[in-house]
Design a protein that fits this description.
By secondary structure, the chain is of the alpha+beta class. The chain contains 13 helices and 15 strands. The strands form 4 sheets. It has a 6-stranded antiparallel sheet with strand order 6-5-15-14-13-12, sandwiched between helices. The chain has a 4-stranded antiparallel sheet with strand order 1-2-3-4. A 3-stranded antiparallel sheet has the order 7-9-8. A hairpin with a 3-residue loop joins strand 2 and strand 3. It is globular, with a radius of gyration of 23 Å.
């Protein structure tokens, strides 16, 4: 009898011990779940079941339970009853995680006043959103469709889980395809994840053009003036070579997951890390450095309304990227490392801007030489990374030209830019574990080989 009483008590004790020790990880899972669900529903306009099935389907996140409050526009997520996180939607600023005491304050955050360019769906891309009627003699449409179809092929055991593919050739939209079974359409905003780092690159480029920032200037952070961090330049941050201590492990309680799913001010959190290497001596991928630059941009502009509107007025609206939504943290900083949405067509427009050397219809949006700077390898990156863009200088994708550079994000988000082939290729999805980007681009490129 006594034994039968002790067994349940021991089980309960074991659960409590495990739950307590793992609580920090559980809070990361609930933070991820609440933020992704809120953005998927209120920013992307997707069904909650689709977000649960495709965005929250891995690691311990798949065990979370989310309640969507459509009236309040919030999501509360729990896991095993041991952790709870809440995310709210704010018009123009997207979704962010909040605590209950912060909820009212951030519900009344200033709305973003966008002046989106008006385009006609009947006009061909990029002025409108229609497919180009232009025919290119060097384009084998059968090969192109086969290559795009491969990206959506879910037969066998290798599930590719592609949401959208868009191919732009010589400035014309030549093909596109979407995951219809998951209700993904040309109008669906899709998460860029770390592709948003490249948008921060563009924001800094505009400030350089305006004479308000220099990449060779020291990072203007007062908290760094008293130690060796004062030697860090804007260039070092853009090159992921700041020398700051940082852990980018997404599978554990790390610096990046703490920043994104436990902290209310990403900039303040990221600038608090100590220096461990001489600037520009070691390449270390760090989402923290992007959010440091996001905060520096905010301080440079000195006015929050201007800051909230800056990427739209200066970049998105000028190229017709009207679906773009960049999200802020609870303190109003753009989470440039990770949080931004746009349609696949609009991600393609961003890639086309860089293919065109920062010029759009004669308007120099980025300064002369900025794309060259962006695509020059960081000294310590061995040809794989420039300034918030990934490079193929090292030949890591052997069947793709070495001049290819790309915006790259978590779970397989990509904007590939290949100047030598006049191509921009967008692939967005819900996973990349089973997706071979080199093989995908090899197939796309084969469609543009000279006909025999």
């Amino acid at each position: 009898m006594k034994r039968s009483i002790w067994i349940p008590l021991l089980i309960v004790a074991a659960i409590l011990i495990i739950g307590t020790s793992q609580y920090p990880k559980l809070s990361i899972a609930t933070g991820y779940g609440a933020k992704c669900m809120a953005s998927g529903v209120f920013v992307a306009g997707r069904e909650a079941n689709s977000v649960k099935e495709n965005d929250l389907d891995y690691s311990i996140v798949k065990y979370t339970t989310s309640h969507v409050d459509y009236q309040e526009k919030s999501v509360t997520t729990t896991i095993f009853g041991l952790a709870k996180q809440k995310a709210i939607y704010r018009e123009g600023l997207g979704c962010c995680l909040v605590t209950e005491r912060q909820l009212f304050q951030h519900l009344v955050a200033p709305s973003l006043q966008k002046i989106a360019s008006v385009t006609s769906w009947r006009n061909p891309w990029p002025d409108g959103e229609g497919k180009s009627d232009s025919l290119f003699s060097e384009l084998d449409t059968t090969k192109l469709q086969n290559a795009v179809g491969w990206a959506f092929d879910e037969s066998g055991v290798k599930l590719k889980r592609t949401a959208a593919v868009v191919v732009i050739y010589k400035g014309k939209l030549v093909t596109e395809q979407y995951w219809k079974e998951q209700s993904i359409t040309p109008d669906t905003r899709l998460w860029g994840w770390s592709m948003n780092k490249s948008i921060v690159n563009a924001m800094i480029g505009v400030l350089v053009k305006q004479g308000r920032m220099s990449v060779q200037a020291l990072a203007p952070i007062e908290e760094w003036l008293r130690d060796k961090r004062r030697e860090i330049k804007i260039n070092d941050l853009l090159h992921m070579s700041s020398g700051l201590k940082w852990n980018e492990d997404y599978g554990d309680l790390s610096d990046v997951t703490t920043m994104l799913y436990k902290e209310q001010d990403c900039y303040k959190f990221a600038i608090g890390f100590p220096s461990e290497k001489i600037p520009d001596s070691e390449w270390k991928y760090s989402s923290g450095t992007t959010n440091i630059l996001s905060g520096i941009i905010r301080k440079t502009l000195k006015n929050d309304q201007q800051y909230f509107e800056f990427p739209y007025h200066e970049i998105a609206n000028k190229i017709g990227m009207s679906s773009l939504i960049l999200e802020t943290d609870a303190n109003g900083n753009f989470v440039g490392s990770s949080y931004g949405y746009a349609t696949a067509r609009d991600w393609a427009k961003f890639g086309q801007l860089y293919l065109q050397d920062g010029v759009w219809k004669g308007d120099s949006i980025l300064p002369k030489g900025w794309v060259s700077y962006t695509t020059t390898s960081a000294k310590a990156a061995n040809g794989k990374y420039g300034a918030f863009f990934w490079l193929n200088r090292s030949g890591s994708m052997p069947d793709v030209p070495e001049d290819m550079f790309a915006c790259q994000g978590h779970r397989g988000q990509r904007v590939f830019i290949i100047p030598s082939k006049q191509l921009v290729v967008v692939r967005l999805g819900f996973g990349e574990e089973k997706f071979d980007h080199n093989q995908f681009l090899k197939g796309i490129l084969s469609a543009f080989a000279p006909s025999k």
